[in-house]
Amino acid sequence: xxxxxxxxxxxRREGNTALLLQExxxxxxxxxxxxxxxxxxxxxxxxxxxxxxxKNSGRCAIQDDFQKVYESLLTSQAVMLASxxxxxxxxxxxxxxxxxxxxxxxxxxxxKETSSGQGLSGRKGLFISVGxxxxxxxxxxxxxxxxxxxxAIDCELxxxxxxxxxxxxxxxxxxxxxxxxxxxxxxxxxxTL
Length: 193
Ligand SMILES: Cc1cc2nc3c(=O)[nH]c(=O)nc-3n(C[C@H](O)[C@H](O)[C@H](O)COP(=O)(O)O)c2cc1C
Description:
Elements (H helix, E strand, L loop, with lengths): L2 E6 L7 H15 L3 E6 L26 H10 L2 E7 L7 H9 L1 H8 L14 E7 L9 H13 L3 E8 L12 H17 L1
Parallel strand pairs: 1-2, 1-3, 3-4, 4-5
Helix pairs in contact: 1-6
The structure holds flavin mononucleotide.
């Protein structure tokens, strides 16, 4: 069975990105995947302290909830990540996770070990994001960050679902076509693995 980790990066439990990711999770499960859901706002996770305790082992030295997420990231064939746009970037919750994954970057670039043991072959990522405004460049900065993040965790960024002009909690419910797109992406992702 394909294993997937779905990471909720919004401080809102039932916010727009959460509703979209829930749909992607539903699609992935319907396609036969085992999906583990990680809600970052429920975890106790320190920011990266840049002490490079991961230098020799590729494992982060800070003992907190990141350790569980690390295991999930290492053992999943696909990663689904959802974050709202906060100041043209990802949410702080999401950024903390990304920085803690420097241990995976170390593993890949310094220790020359790939997360999956087989490089980019197979591991795929889906990114979902939402912003309130409609600027052309709304997702530009975030996509740079997210692309580099997925590369660091040895995962090809397979697809990004990006939606503008959604602000209040539940705004996305007025766009069933966005929810359907997320549902479809969740099942398509599994079929590409
Ligand atoms: C701290 C903060 C910063 C934000 N920065 C931006 C921004 O730079 N651009 C934008 O379009 N929306 C911005 N927003 C609006 C959110 O992206 C928007 O409300 C989104 O729907 C939230 O998604 P969520 O419900 O999944 O949390 C910001 C909201 C907050 C709380």
